[in-house]
Amino acid sequence: MTSKKTLAEKTAEAIKAMIQKDHYEPGQKLPTEKELCEMLNVGRNTLREAERILQSHNIVTIRQGSGTYISEKYGVADDPFGFDMYPDHNRLTGDILEVLAFMEPEIVAIAAEKRDQHDIERMEDCLNQMAQKVDQGLSCIDEECEFYRLIADSSHNIVMERMTPLLTQGIRFFASTLQQKDFLYATRNYRQVLSGIKHQKAVDAKLTMSYHLLFLRRQYLELLQRASIDY
């Protein structure tokens, strides 16, 4: 038996439909509370509860004293696979790297076919920032994960764009164990990947990324073995 939806839940669905219909973008502000109440014919308490429902699903962000905005996460849950609650991060990291090794090269190949000039410029900027941090001896984990996200964006495939940030959790876990020389090696490989994407050489880009990820996973397994961790 289906439970009856509350007025707040129905209002949340109406706001969500409006967001989709009017093509709201992340960061864009919704109409004021007064305007939404009039549009949806509901009271302020109902509207506020509806907005809290949408915020819990990362669809909107409520900024006290400013208004309600479309969330940058745009409906993507913070941890939909429950990775943060998995007790064995060593096992989880290895498994994510394994999945990444056969998924990411295919994403790279599609990006090489579909990328545009704006995509290329963003990836180049990201790698330049990563290289700069490597030269300064600083952590560049954020830039590395951002590079994977930008590759997914360049595929112009919605599913890939949504899945890649989840998979890069493995990169983030693993990267915390790396030394600066490893990041220097990674930066060089990523520049080769980008070169393949830029010149639409899908096979070259795919093979370079495949080799790099297999190397990372092998290196990670060796790290676990040295630490006497049974993976």
UniProtKB/TrEMBL annotation:
Keyword DNA-binding assigned: yes
SUPFAM superfamilies found in the cross-reference section: GntR ligand-binding domain-like, Winged helix' DNA-binding domain
Key words, A-Z: DNA-binding, Transcription, Transcription regulation
**Mind listing the GO molecular function terms for this protein?**
DNA binding; DNA-binding transcription factor activity
Domain of life, per UniProt, equals Bacteria
Q: Which Pfam families match?
A: FCD, GntR
Q: Where is the HTH gntR-type domain?
A: 5-73
- Chloroplast as a keyword? no
Q: What is this protein called?
A: FadR family transcriptional regulator
Question: Could you read off the lineage of the organism from its UniProt record?
Answer: Bacteria, Bacillati, Bacillota, Erysipelotrichia, Erysipelotrichales
